[in-house]
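It would be a great kindness if you could assist me with a short task in structural biology. The matter concerns a single protein, recorded as an amino acid sequence and a row of backbone structure tokens. Kindly check, if you would, that the fold set down in the tokens agrees with what the sequence suggests. Thank you for your consideration; the sequence and its tokens are set out here:
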Amino acid sequence: MRRILIALSLLFTFTASHASNVEIQHVFGWIENATLEPWGVKVKSKLDTGALTSSLHARNIERFEKDGEEWVRFEVNVEDQDEDEKVSRKFERPLYRDVIIRGAGGEERRPVVLMEICFGDTVHEEQFSLENRSDMIYPVLIGRRTIQHLGVVDVTNTFMHEPQCDEDSPVEKFDKDNTDEDVGV
């Protein structure tokens, strides 16, 4: 019994000292509004802790070469939550990498680009795989690689933060060295 009490005492001491060193993080609901930057269109985003890489609804995805590098041209068609109307915009971004998605139907290779998205009052440059998500409820899916930079997800809540970014908002540029590429794996 004495050993159990000593072990519990040490456990509580370690937990209390560790908790005081943990940085306070933002808490987000499992569904949040965000804005795609620099476009500024407000979209519903699903924060999915089961997904590793974030995904953005895109159509007419086309790879091309520019200045000796591989780029991706694509069109984003989403419903603007502020205007309650469908909006569309074409983008061109350097290819960051390819991701292989494995599912029941086999493997699929998708392009990944860096895009800026606003959560709360901060713009985050993050990795997004491009895919046609027209059959999905949410045009933007936020995976763990992005969530690790946002904070924590409260699965019992939705819409805890409205995007409020402007030209003076801080921009968290993607930093591969400060990212756990296999977070949670």
